[in-house]
Amino acid sequence: MAFFGKVVLITGAASGIGKATAVMFAKAGAKLSLTDCNSEELQKVGKECELIGKNKPLLIIAELTNDDEFEKIFHETIANFSSLDVLINNAGTIGRGNIENVVLETFDKIMKINVRAAFRLISLSVPYLAKTKGVVINISSIFSRVCVPEALMYCMSKSTVDHMTNCLAVDLAKYGIRVNSINPGPVKTNLLQNDGINSAQIEMHHQNYIKNCPLKRMAEPEEIANAISFLCSDSASFITGINLIIDGGMHLRLSAS
Fold first, then answer.
1. pLDDT, tens only, 141-167
2. DSSP three-state, residue 31
3. Based on the number of CB atoms within 10 Å of its own CB, is 158 exposed (0-12), middle (13-18) or buried (19 or more)?
4. CB 130 within 8 A of CB 87
5. Which residues contact 163 (CB under 8 A, 6 or more apart)?
6. What angle do CA 247, 250, 254 make, to 5 degrees?
7. How many CA atoms lie within 13 A of 173 on its CB side?
8. pLDDT confidence band for 28 (50 / 70 / 90)
9. CA gap 132, 79 in Å, rounded
């Protein structure tokens, strides 16, 4: 897919799906605004994208638990590029816990990063995306549709992302803005590691994912990036309001169990 000259804002761009998506758009000629709370890793991604795409990305270090950071990300992007074509709300956190041991601070953090940040960035972007007939992609999860032990707050947040996506697809269609979500299953990222889960537990989780996945493997981040590229392209010009599951069939196995 070619995105020459298109301005693309990606949150959570320092690793995993965000990094793979940034590299893919860099190869396709896009102008990138990349944000993450991990400064060191974001700098590495920025350098890689610059070498591949020949355009120097705008790098914004931001912590999405802070409301003021939403404004900073958006305003620095517009100040640098003056327009916006694609917004990819990829930043996310998982968090552990159930209704019996929930910590409200954890609940608030998950909702701020997974839902509130996306909501606010979309609201700020509407006037600019309306001018370019732009695209919003929200990164959700198959766990918006299935119940997972000790992941109540994460599942709730991703269900909210899905329904927000659907509602905004209707609300923003009058401007020609398309809004879709991607619902990955198990992907080779550092999401669990960032949540403080130890390597032994992560391996156990991964093996359980593979056991329940009909294709018997985890996805590569680039496979999710490919779907994002398609939904942002002119080839998907009549697609809006979908929650696209990319999980190797895992949701079918889980829903039947």
1. 999 998 878 889 999 999 999 999 999
2. strand
3. buried
4. no
5. none
6. 145
7. 12
8. very high
9. 17
Task: Quote the tokens at residue 170.
Answer: 């209707």
Report the distance separating Cα 135 and Cα 132, nearest Å.
9
Question: To 5 degrees, how large is the angle CA 158–CA 43–CA 13?
Answer: 15
**In whole angstroms, how far apart are CA 203 and each of 41, 206, 209?**
23, 5, 10
| Size (the chain), residues | 257
Cα–Cα distance measured from residue 202 to residue 245, given in angstroms and rounded to the nearest whole number: 22
Which residues contact residue 108 at a Cβ distance below 8 angstroms, ignoring those fewer than 6 apart?
none
193 pLDDT band, cuts 50/70/90, is low
Residue 81 · residue 33 · CB < 8 Å: yes
Q: ∠ at Cα 32 (28, 33), nearest 5°?
A: 160
CB 49 within 8 A of CB 29: no
- In this prediction, residues 178-186 reach a mean pLDDT of 95
State the pLDDT confidence band at 240, using cuts at 50, 70 and 90: very high
Kindly state the tokens that stand for 17: 């799906």
Cβ–Cβ < 8 Å for 82, 57: no
Could you tell me where the DSSP H helices lie in 54-151? Answer: 67-81, 104-111, 117-132
Residues in a beta bridge with 32? 8
What mean pLDDT comes out for the span 66-85? 96
178-184 and 135-139 beta bridge pairing: parallel
Whole-prediction pTM: 0.93
Nearest of 32, 20, 27, 7 to residue 82 by alpha carbon: 7
Quote the CA–CA distance of 49 and 16 in Å, as a whole number: 14
Note the pLDDT of residue 30. 97
Active site residues: 154
